[in-house]
Amino acid sequence: MSYGMLTHEKIFRKVINIVTIIVLYILLLAIIVGMFNVFQNIGLVWLKKGGFSQVVYSVLTIFVLIDFFKAFADYQVHERIRLTYVTDATILIVLREITVLIYSHEFETETLLVFAALLLVLGIVRGIAVRFPASGNVNVKSLEMDRKSGEE
């Protein structure tokens, strides 16, 4: 019996919708600021006052932000998080950290091996996610109805 009252589910969906929209705008602003940072770093490299590693780091950071933006935008539309977007962002974060370690010349072999193992696992997870994609939205209520109809 619904008399136009807001249910908990509607309230939760509305709050999540508002939060994801705010996060999308924050990510968009971060991408724009990141692009200005890239141009600033390119200018410093051009003037021989900065390192090329900072440009690479800034560009990889923008790619991470773009992947997070894609994940939130996809969630806004489909109300689910795709594993491929999350693994892509994580792979980019690991690659960014490897790049920083290599350019700074402050890395140990064990650290690089751990990052390599992590990249291997993330690549396998991403490959499995692409090979066996989720089968759309699964509605809990429809699963309960299917279970109840099977009991009768």
Which segments are poorly predicted (pLDDT under 50) over 5 or more consecutive residues?
Answer: 140-144
End-to-end Cα distance: 26 Å
Number of strands: 0
Radius of gyration: 22 Å
State mean pLDDT (0 to 100 scale).
Answer: 83
Rough outline:
flat
Quick one: biggest sheet?
Answer: none
Secondary structure layout:
Blueprint: H1 8-46, H2 52-78, H3 83-104, H4 109-131, H5 140-151
Helix pairs in contact: 1-2, 2-3, 3-4
Short description:
Keywords: Cell membrane, Membrane, Transmembrane, Transmembrane helix. Its main location: membrane. The chain is mainly α and 152 residues long.
Question: What features would you describe in this structure?
Answer:
The protein has 152 residues and is an all-alpha fold. It has one domain (8-151). The chain is 81% helix and 0% strand. It contains five helices and no strands. It has helices at residues 8-46, 52-78, 83-104, 109-131, 140-151. Residues 140-144 have low confidence and may be disordered. The chain crosses the membrane at residues 15-39, 51-73, 111-129. Keywords: Cell membrane, Membrane, Transmembrane, Transmembrane helix. It is found in: Cell membrane.
List keywords for this structure.
5 helices, mainly alpha, flat, 152 residues
